[in-house]
Amino acid sequence: MTSTLRLSIGALCLAVLAGCATPGTTTTSQSTERSTGQWQEQLNEVEEFSSWSLIGKVGLRTPEDSTSANLDWRQTPYQYRLLVTGPMGAGRSTLEGRAGRVSLTTSEGRFEADSPEALMEQELGWSLPVSSLSDWVRGLPAEGEPHESSEDSLGFPATLSQAGWEIEYRSWQNVDGVWLPQKLVMNYDDLRATLVVNQWQALNDEQ
């Protein structure tokens, strides 16, 4: 890992966390246990669940440092917004994207590019597959890229390897009868990112 990567932990947080029947709002499981075959039964619903908000906490760890921040992520098929508050984002950082334009607002100012990856390349000198994360956070591989995955004993995703990232699905929560990831651990080189979801909520596309 380069020194630039190690020194850019606040911006990296935003990169790591940006990317029909729909679940509602929940902070606790509505069913106590998952069962065999449920993931395949609900797979179409998860794939169609494309307008949502997520509230949680993200932590990053490198060999030199560790930090965490609160995350408020709103995603629709047309736009997304990730608001990060806390030490990791130097107080408050926002990544927004729509119609081919992406902006990153931090204490240093506002920056724009054509895509999340282009913005990272422009501002940091390197890029990550930000566009894939809206799939990964739902337990799905990103389309159009090779991947490897494994299942747990119930048939739910256990691990996913894609674009250089190793993702582990540690726990799940029931959101109006649909199981969604609650804790993800993601590793890239010597970076470790942990996302804990406190709340999922379905949104209308207009929200």
From TrEMBL:
Which segment of the chain is annotated as a signal peptide?
1-23
The protein's predominant localisation is membrane
Q: Please, one GO biological process term? A: lipoprotein localization to outer membrane
UniProt keyword list: Cell outer membrane, Chaperone, Lipoprotein, Membrane, Palmitate, Protein transport, Signal, Transport
UniProt xrefs under PROSITE patterns = PROKAR_LIPOPROTEIN
Q: Which GO terms describe its cellular component?
A: cell outer membrane
Q: How does it sit in the membrane?
A: Lipid-anchor
Q: Which domain of life is it from?
A: Bacteria
The record's annotation in Pfam families points to: LolB
This protein's record includes keyword tRNA processing: no
Q: Which InterPro entries match?
A: LolA/LolB/LppX, OM_lipoprot_LolB
Keyword Chaperone attributed: yes
What job does this protein perform?
Plays a critical role in the incorporation of lipoproteins in the outer membrane after they are released by the LolA protein.
**How is the quaternary structure described?**
Monomer.
Q: What is this protein called?
A: Outer-membrane lipoprotein LolB
